[in-house]
Amino acid sequence: IAVLGLIVLAVSPCDAALAWRRGSETRGEPWEYGWPLRLLQLFVALPYLFSGWAKLMYAGPAWASAANIRAWLLLSNQDDQLAVFTMPGLWIADRPALCLLMGAAALAFDFLFVLAVFWPRSRRVLVPAAVLFHLAILFTQNYFFLSMPLLLVFVDWNAMRRRSTALRQFPRTI
Known about the structure:
Blueprint: H1 2-11, H2 30-58, H3 66-76, H4 87-93, H5 96-112, H6 115-118, H7 123-141, H8 157-169
């Protein structure tokens, strides 16, 4: 995903749009700078969508069942040499209702995350949910998602810059 993103950035006119200097003006139309970002966001969102699709295609709705999630939790916590966090996963595996909730939430999240590309307001919920989703997988199954920093393409950096500027200009009263 990162390599595809670098290729998109290499062929896009993003140099002026990414300038952090004050007073720098963009040299083109807004649509010229929007498509590379949307394409990068789509590259990040599609693995979630395809993951959910593969789960339904090959395992069906039973993938989200309590028995299946329990089996995955137990399997991922078996190896003493690789499993760093064993207590959370084993604790959840002993509770069928939590296993079912975990499976249904994972399947729903896989299909819903693509909304972050097309509906900007959903990013406020879906991107932090993705970070929590991957941290939960790390602590329950000991699998770390190396591409988690790619979720930063969903952050509105211009809004962050405007907020930090407004905070710096805010009069301090003590």
